[in-house]
Amino acid sequence: MDSVRTVVNEVRAGRSLQPKSWPGGARAAVLLSFDVDNETIAVRYGEPTVGSLAEMQYGARVGLPRILRLLDRHRLPASFFIPSVSLALTPTMARDINASGRHEFAVHGWIHELNTTLPDSAERALLKKAVEELTALTGRKPVGYRAPSWNFSPNTLDIVRDMGFRYESSLMADDAPYELLHRGQATGLVELPVQWILDDAPLFDPRGERYMNPRDVARVWMDEFDKAFEEGGMVVLTMHPHVSGHRSRIVALEMFIAHVQAKGASKVWWATHADAADYVRKQAGLGEPKPR
């Protein structure tokens, strides 16, 4: 049991940061996030093919503009988690995302690296490089981190804390925001949890065994929202421009937005991850992230 406890307590959910209410008396919070991976999904393995690169280029060339037009139409904010290599390959994405003044840039690795396979020194160097490059390309230093493939190495949380991030969004221990514990100690770091059922990539893979019709996916997301609304909670959606940016798939996001907006503008708080993390931190009286 000593070994079990050591493993289990490495990174653990601490106290809930679920607020008593959301800004303006809203009943629920909705956080839209987009992991702008594009070609990094192909090149991170070192042997990309022309076909796979073309498929992923769709994200920057077609998918992202289509998604931004939808968000602009409804004046909705979103958080864009971007491997810095992805943005370096198509730097105009920074201009396009920045144009509305509503969106947030956050870190999603350097090249969507398989961080769980890397030694501390390599993982640390790549994340430092990603932050520097995203800051230079976007004009803003990112405050949020999302691990590539939503997983931590034994060193990831040490590195994230050392680099001063204010929130993290890769883990799945709750529906509500919570404080991360690190080896049994409170960190002051806000976790905004994700979930595979609220991610488009596994559900929209036409070559996989889990493929779902976009309208069926929209129903799952709407049902999640309805329960969150009933409970006074939060929904975090994760989408990818090279996935949800397709014409037949963006229907799911359109349906979800329409369903949420039908509750009334005052009943739902649409927020970036950074704004949500700052809000729950303040409401919970949580201090600044603690250096390790």
UniProtKB/TrEMBL annotation:
* PROSITE patterns associated with the record: NODB
Q: Which SUPFAM superfamilies match?
A: Glycoside hydrolase/deacetylase
MF GO annotations: hydrolase activity, acting on carbon-nitrogen (but not peptide) bonds
Q: Where is the NodB homology domain?
A: 48-268
Pfam family membership, one: Polysacc_deac_1
Could you provide one GO biological process annotation from this protein's UniProt record?
carbohydrate metabolic process
This chain's protein is named: Polysaccharide deacetylase
**Naturally occurring in which organism (per UniProt):** Gemmatimonas phototrophica
